[in-house]
Amino acid sequence: MSALRVGLFFAALLSLASCKRGPVDTTKHSYDDDEAPEYQTQILNGEEKKVPWAEVPETQRYILEHEDSPLGERVTVRVPIVKVTTTSLDEEGKPVPLEKAYRYEYTEEGLNPKYKIRGKGGPRP
Fold first, then answer.
1. Does residue 116 belong to any structural domain of this protein?
2. Which residues contact 26 (CB under 8 A, 6 or more apart)?
3. I want to staple 96 with a disulfide (CB 3.0 to 4.6 A). Which of 28, 50, 100, 102 is the partner?
């Protein structure tokens, strides 16, 4: 084996060893922090960006469901949000930045595809 091939082999091996992320079970209902994705895909009016997980605000990282019990509220579902799709429109139905929206719709998709949250907002009557 040439020195170049040996060097490339060890570089690849090191990059694999340093990468903690491998295949993730997408059927679970509760995930630990170390199972979170590297980034969250955010799509606003068709423009996609990938936000590193560490930069996603804590309140926007997980789909959570709670259950009341005699010992207090406990989390029964904790699924990382891997994709957020938002459409924001002005009064004429044209795409605008979210802060200028007359109405908006969003979908948050979890690592387990069973979990999806849809919402919308706009003017109140």
1. yes
2. 111, 112, 113
3. 100
Range of the structural domain that residue 110 is part of: 23-121
pTM of the model: 0.74
Q: Is residue 27 part of a domain?
A: yes
Instruction: Compute the CA torsion angle 33, 35, 37, 42 (nearest 10 deg).
Output: -60
pLDDT digits (tens, 9 = 90+) for 58-76: 999 999 998 876 777 777 8
User: Within 13 Å and on the Cβ side, how many CA atoms surround 96?
Assistant: 13
- Tokens 């908006």 sit at which residue? 104
Q: Given phi > 0 = left and psi -120 to 50 = alpha, else beta, which region is 43?
A: beta
Q: How many domains does the chain have?
A: 1
Nearest-angstrom CA–CA distance, 29 and 115: 9
Q: Where are the alpha helices (DSSP H) in the chain?
A: 3-18
Whose tokens are 């936000």? That residue is 51
Selected residue with higher pLDDT from 39 and 14: 39
Rounded Cα–Cα distance for residues 95 and 69 (Å): 44
Domain-embedded: residue 28 = yes
